[in-house]
Design goal:
heterodimer; A: 579 residues; alpha/beta; Rossmann fold; 4 domains; 7-stranded mixed beta sheet; 5-stranded parallel beta sheet; 22 strands; 17% strand; B: 190 residues; Pyruvate-ferredoxin Oxidoreductase, domain 3; 6 strands; 38% helix; globular
Chain lengths: 579, 190
């Protein structure tokens, strides 16, 4: 049956059909659904790991034991997984192993737009790049064949538009592959003597993979009808934009395998078409390869290294006229994302902003605390950097910063890589206050379980990290828990912990309001006789409160009745149902 | 058939994912090649969101660019204005008249352009405005706003109502089928 599937679901299906038995991943947009969809199959094992390094090593272990495995992550997650990656390139695999990595050109939900293809080149690991959902499914199967044939982990690289676009997919059957585990220290113990002996294998493998790339159906030439006297080399979603603009009027070399890249295939294509354009998002990886092998091409001189492309980007570059459209004179205010009405993070941020505290932030929904009107954050870098950054900030600033600086980090991010920073704070004794914003779920990526929630990926009971005990165990003596809906309690805790002459942790704990088990209360309403229009509640930045005709107004489709705004109002104008 | 383009726009959390799922299901059942593109993650948190639905004999790009949309279905008034540049000449905007203030308006840094639909009409845009929120309430849940708007969109297509209803059955949980069918009919008939 034909089905419409997002690329990530199709990729999960492909991994499943290829007999993948174990997936370990850390969520991250736009990669999350690969693992979530795979978790829906019953005859396989699937988990959320604490971070991408752990996930990759888990998948490696499963491959070593003889089962096809995979790990999935976003582009920046690959930075965390880079350590095992580079040496797995040397050991190779037993059963096939696939690393799914999803880039985010345009940074819809990311802190940078790094190009994962560089990792494939640097680690000398093959990389396949599907351009739609059917290819995502098909490439998963091919990836396992390559993995076992050439003894290497294989990347499948997605991007936002392939990962999150639905297109039609035809499903197939699952076949399982099992390899025997045979002890082989020369292959699997990467101590110097063995690694030195293994490096030539890696170089020979790349040569063999290059030969494979020359004839593999992953890379194909689509002959044009001769309307245009040039050819285009492209891959991934850019291929779709090229076809949208040119149809069959131009010759296209469509690359499905972007590392290693073919040599003769490209040279032959270039000889045939004459002038060649390389159209690829982000960095000039294909372009550089072409130039290295002596093929003259036009690439980043004409197409940007920034953001996403579209059919318009390509049409424009070739001088094809814009389509007629409507423009309004009215200025349209921006609508940036923001923390939800009733979000438990808001209370803590309000307290921090009110007290002019410097706040080093981290990665998650709570990064949105940087937005007006709270403007509560000073820094966001990468997963876990708030904690280690705070330590460095206070070591440098000492008495000047210690009493007025904190970091904030979510529960999942803390487990991912915040705890190592906290160990450093405890070990090297900086007078730092770490605030864990514990909303009992991995929020931003769409509610994944994590080691602090007590549930596994399927929602079944699982081991549970006790954050208080963990913080105490690493050597923090002052650990306290507050409810962020209680602003007075939060303010008291922040002031007291900052005043202490020792490291401390405040756990700001209340579940995300979007969790199903959090039952919203009736929306509050404004008593307009009492509201004097002082706008104090507007400083809270709740999207359910706006200001019209000299009074605060509550949007009852958004308000969940948390009542924190009521505690801010000096005139008791916020009333709950029944008052 | 030339590719047709529908954009679904609104505020994160308004249920555009279900609307696009419904459309996708329906159009696949009708035998078209279909692509649906949406962005998950950060922007879903109360930000401006857009979903592209494209169908025809063969669809390549999953996204819709300036001047290409045949229909824009907007879940909120201001969002219709934000994406109007993507409408092709002679295209139609189906818009829920609900007003949701964005943060710059809430904190007093910007004005909500209340009269923006009139400006669109002056510029020759076909504006089909509908109070989908009230109709959804009438159907039994304000959350069914998305399906009210799909009902309205259905008026512009040559696809029988029962096919839409069967797509609703396939896309929503059994407990919500009746409310959503009612919402669909209210959107179609009002």
């Amino acid at each position: 049956m034909k089905e419409l599937m997002i690329g990530n679901a199709a990729l999960a299906r492909g991994l499943y059909e290829a007999g993948c038995c174990v997936i370990s991943s850390y969520p991250g947009t736009p990669s999350t659904e690969i693992t979530e969809e795979f978790a829906k199959f019953n005859d396989t094992y699937c988990e959320w790991a604490p971070n991408e390094k752990v996930a990759t090593e888990t998948a490696f272990g499963a491959s070593l034991r003889g089962k096809r495995s995979a790990c999935c992550m976003k582009h920046v997650g690959l930075n965390v997984a880079a350590d095992p990656l580079f040496t797995m390139s040397y050991t190779g695999v037993n059963a096939g192993m696939v690393i799914c990595v999803a880039d985010d050109p345009g940074m819809h939900s990311s802190q940078n737009e790094q190009d994962s293809r560089h990792y494939a080149v640097a680690a000398k690991v093959p990389m396949l790049e599907p351009s739609d959902s059917q290819e995502a499914l098909d490439f998963a199967k091919i990836a396992y064949e390559i993995s076992e044939q050439f003894d290497t982990p294989v990347f499948i690289k997605m991007c936002t538009r392939v990962a999150h676009s639905q297109s039609i997919v035809e499903k197939g059957e699952r076949t399982e592959v099992t390899k025997e585990y045979v002890k082989n220290p020369k292959k699997y113990i990467m101590a110097p003597a063995n690694a030195i002996a293994r490096h030539p294998f890696v170089e020979e493998r790349t040569a063999k993979l290059t030969a494979y790339a020359e004839t593999s159906p992953l890379n194909r030439v689509e002959e044009g009808n001769g309307d245009y006297d040039f050819g285009i080399i492209t891959s991934s979603t850019s291929y779709q934009y090229v076809k949208e603009v040119f149809g069959n009027k131009v010759s296209v070399l469509k690359l499905g395998m972007v590392n290693p890249l073919p040599v003769e295939l490209i040279r032959t294509f270039a000889r045939k078409v004459g002038k060649v354009y390389v159209i690829e998002e982000l960095d000039p990886v294909i372009e550089t390869h072409c130039k290295n092998i002596g093929v003259e091409v036009v690439g980043k001189d004409k197409f940007s290294m920034l953001g996403e492309f579209s059919q318009k980007t390509i049409a424009k570059a070739f001088g094809i006229a814009d389509k007629e459209s409507v423009a309004l004179e009215t200025e349209i205010p921006v609508r940036p994302p923001m923390m939800c009405a009733g979000c438990p993070h808001r209370g803590m941020y309000y307290v921090l902003a009110k007290n002019n505290i410097t706040v080093l932030g981290d990665i998650g929904c709570y990064t949105l605390g940087s937005m007006p009107p709270l403007n509560a954050l000073d820094m966001t870098l990468c997963m876990g950097a708030s904690v280690s950054g705070l330590h460095g900030y206070n070591k440098a600033g000492q008495q000047e910063t210690e009493g007025k600086t904190v970091c904030v980090i979510g529960d999942s991010t803390f487990i991912h890589s915040g705890v190592t920073g906290l160990i450093n704070i405890a070990y090297n004794q900086s007078n730092s206050t770490v605030i864990i914003l514990d909303n009992s779920v991995t929020g931003m990526t769409g509610h994944q379980q994590n080691p602090t929630t007590g549930k596994n990926i399927k929602g079944d009971p699982a081991g549970k990290v006790d954050l208080e005990s963990l913080c105490r165990a690493v050597g923090i003596n002052s650990v306290r828990v507050v409810d962020p809906y209680n602003l007075d309690e939060c303010e008291k805790a922040v002031k007291e912990e900052l005043a202490k002459n020792e490291p401390s942790v405040i756990i700001s704990r209340r579940p995300c309001v979007l969790l199903k088990y959090v039952k919203p209360k009736k929306p509050l309403r404004i008593n307009t006789d009492k509201c004097r229009g002082c706008k104090r509640c507007m400083k809270f930045g709740c999207p359910a409160i706006s200001f019209r005709d000299k009074h605060a107004v509550i949007d009852n489709t958004l308000c969940i009745g948390c009542g924190v705004c009521a505690s801010l109002c000096p005139f008791s104008a916020f009333e709950s149902e029944g008052e | 058939m030339e590719t047709k383009n529908i954009m679904i726009v609104g505020v994160g959390g308004q249920g555009s994912l279900l609307a696009s799922k419904l459309l996708g299901r329906l159009l696949v059942d009708e035998g078209y090649d279909v692509k649906v593109s949406e962005v998950h993650g950060m922007s879903q948190r109360g930000g401006s969101v857009v979903t592209y639905v494209r169908f025809g004999d063969r669809v390549y790009s999953p996204i819709i660019e300036e001047g290409e949309a045949d229909y824009i279905v907007s879940f909120e008034k201001l969002e219709a204005a934000r994406y109007i540049k993507d409408l092709r000449k002679g295209g139609t905007v189906i818009v829920n008249t609900q007003q949701i203030d964005p943060m710059p308006v809430i904190i007093g840094n910007a004005e909500y352009p209340v009269e923006v639909l009139d400006e669109m009409r002056e510029k020759g845009v076909n504006v089909d405005a509908i109070d989908a929120l009230s109709l959804a309430g009438e159907a039994g849940s304000v959350k069914a706003c998305n399906i009210v708007l799909m009902g309205r969109l259905a008026k512009y297509f040559d696809i029988p109502e029962e096919k839409w209803e069967s797509a609703i059955e396939k896309c929503v949980k059994p407990a919500f089928v009746d409310i959503n069918k009612k919402a669909f009919t209210l959107g179609y008939n009002n």
